[in-house]
Specification:
The protein has 309 residues and is an alpha/beta fold. It folds into two domains: 248 residues, 3-Layer(aba) Sandwich (Rossmann fold), CATH 3.40.50; 46 residues, no CATH class. It is built from 14 helices and five strands. The protein has a five-stranded parallel beta sheet, sandwiched between helices. Bound molecules: adenosine monophosphate (AMP) and magnesium ion.
Length: 309
């Protein structure tokens, strides 16, 4: 099953979250049933990130949005575990500071976008400026209502500059949220997460859902698609997100850069002696060289043929 297709929000479609089953678990019975696949996707993510870093041409921006308790932290934990810290980062966006508020709302966002070869995960994002800001009337409607277009333009510019953008809304239902808050009360390692505001924000559930539906309906494009991930089951959420990331990265058709040095010359210059010393037959080394040369000749031949066509 390709979740990249199934959970993708088509441009201009009217999204109704009430009709999307947050408890969807695909064809899987339980967590055990996905463990082999999850592992496979994790390994593939590791490879693809290494490739992105080496190629140094593309970058990937992952935007994560969800209701409180929706599993942003857990998703980040799972996805980032597959990655080399050298090529990726996570940025969380909280209530803006005085300095951030003194700038336009995209100021703090733009400077955290990934550089070439890198992956950045946004834990919340510029979308808060049409979500919490709208729900609580933090700016006038005439201001926030213009932001959908501004955000689309901003993301288009990022995409045109080589940033691949993928946006996930982790979709849980209201009962699951309460269950997760309840679980936190009994788990000492989660109690620190509990806040009054989580409970008071629950009262605005419907307004948040409405605001999310507007975001999803107005801001999903091929250059920056939204995916609605059924997220009541954490293991299914991780599976769907990993699969979509793998398929997105594979779609970039990335390649390792060709070596910038003459490998044959390097071998001769720096490794011949070592090979002899360590008892490796010089013949072996020469055979290696011949193979490399042959490959080069074949490649050239192919290129010439292509040109003739
Ligand atoms: P958390 O992600 O649980 O650490 O909480 C971060 C808080 O910051 C959430 O309550 C968000 O709604 C809030 N927040 C993030 N961005 C903005 C923003 N642009 N304006 C107002 N509140 C924000
Ligand atoms: Mg929170």
């Amino acid at each position: 099953m390709s979740y990249t297709n199934e959970f993708h929000i088509k441009t201009g479609s009217k999204v109704n979250l009430g009709k999307i089953d947050a408890g969807d678990q695909g064809d899987y019975e339980n967590e055990e049933a996905v463990s082999a696949e999850l592992k496979k996707y994790s390994q593939r993510l590791t490879e693809l990130q290494a490739l992105m870093y080496a190629e140094n041409k593309h970058s990937l921006l992952i935007v994560l949005q969800a209701m409180d308790g929706g599993g942003k932290d857990g998703t980040i934990h799972h996805v980032m575990a597959a990655m080399n810290p050298q090529g990726c980062s996570v940025v969380g966006f909280k209530v803006p500071t005085a300095e951030e508020l003194a700038h336009d709302y995209l100021w703090r966002i733009h400077k955290m976008t990934p550089t070439k070869g890198h992956i950045t995960v946004f834990n919340r994002s510029h979308y808060e400026d049409v979500l919490v800001v709208r729900v609580h009337g933090l700016v006038l409607e005439e201001i926030w209502s213009k932001r959908y277009n501004e955000i689309n333009e901003f993301e288009r510019e990022l995409a045109n500059s080589g940033t691949t953008i993928v946006k996930f809304f982790l979709h849980i239902d209201k009962e699951e949220q309460l269950k997760r808050f309840r679980d936190r009360l009994d788990e000492p390692d989660k109690q620190w997460k509990i806040s009054d505001s989580d409970y008071t924000e629950r009262e605005y559930w419907d307004e948040y859902q409405r605001s999310y539906m507007d975001v999803l309906s107005k801001c999903s494009f091929n250059y920056a698609p939204w995916y609605v991930i059924p997220a009541n089951h954490k293991w299914f959420r991780d599976l769907a997100v990993s699969q979509i990331l793998v398929e997105t990265l594979e779609g970039l058709k990335m390649k390792y850069p060709a070596p910038s040095v003459d490998l044959v010359a390097i071998k001769q210059k720096y490794h011949a002696e070592v090979a002899e010393e360590s008892g490796l037959a010089a013949v072996e080394l020469m055979a290696d060289e011949e193979q490399l040369k042959e490959k080069k000749v074949k490649k050239k031949g192919k290129k010439k043929k292509k040109k003739k066509k």
